[in-house]
Specification:
Elements: E1 8-13, H1 17-28, E2 33-39, E3 54-58, H2 67-76, E4 80-85, H3 90-99, E5 104-106, H4 111-122, H5 130-137, H6 149-159, H7 164-171, H8 175-191, H9 199-208
Parallel strand pairs: 1-2, 1-3, 3-4, 4-5
């Protein structure tokens, strides 16, 4: 007997009613997703009274809030963020990437593409797409955390999914040495304004800096 899939709890922040209704109808048909609510601003999320796995966030809201502040507030609640947008604003996409969003999905996407993106982001994984990659690649502010050659080597191994112990064995150093390097790498990214608190964050930074290749 196979175990039931874990249901991910999500919410949508969107201030256009028709889009919200379509989103609700789509998600409510997915047995592995639970829609906690539809709200028009991030400040309304705590009122849902739920622990969220993911918030799908409209890139541009009528309340004048910024992607950075919205994503920071959502992360404080312990949820991941997937950007949901109907248009292209590379500046806003770049700010969302810097703030730690896991990717971007267009409102015009096919239903199965949207659901796949939601499931991926709700599990804490990066959602890849041409809009997201192009915005990150063109953002010069993402380029320099001033990592040494050794730090770049360790980041590329650790961010690829190896454990600290496996990285240590590969390089012939102690696990504690690798842990020290990872802490230093996190600190350098934080100093550069590109937080890397989790392994997912480190994976994203490695992608941004060309240390890893994303899925094709």
């Amino acid at each position: 007997m196979t175990a039931a899939k874990e249901r991910r709890v999500i919410a949508l922040v969107e201030d256009h009613a028709l889009i919200s209704i379509g989103f609700r109808d789509l998600v409510e048909g997915a047995q592995d997703l639970e829609l906690a609510g539809l709200v028009e601003g991030v400040d309304a999320l705590p009122g849902l009274g739920r622990t969220l796995d993911l918030v799908v966030l409209d890139l541009r809201l009528a309340d004048g809030s910024t992607p950075e502040s919205n994503i920071a507030a959502i992360h404080e609640m312990g949820a991941h963020v997937l950007i949901y947008t109907g248009g292209e604003d590379r500046r806003l996409i770049q700010s969302a990437a810097r703030a730690g969003a896991l990717g971007l999905i267009r409102k015009s996407s096919e239903p199965d593409v949207l659901l796949d993106a939601i499931r991926t982001a709700a599990a804490g994984q990066e959602v890849f797409g041409t809009d997201w990659a192009a915005a990150i690649d063109s953002d010069d502010s993402l380029a320099d955390a001033r990592l040494s050659a050794r730090e770049r080597e360790i980041l590329s191994l650790y961010a690829s999914g190896l454990t600290a112990y496996s990285v240590a064995r590969h390089l012939g150093v102690s696990r504690e040495t690798v842990a020290d390097y990872v802490s230093r790498i996190r600190r350098k990214y934080a100093d550069a304004g590109r937080p890397a608190q989790s392994r997912v964050d480190l994976y994203k930074r490695a992608l941004e800096d060309g240390l890893l290749e994303g899925p094709q």
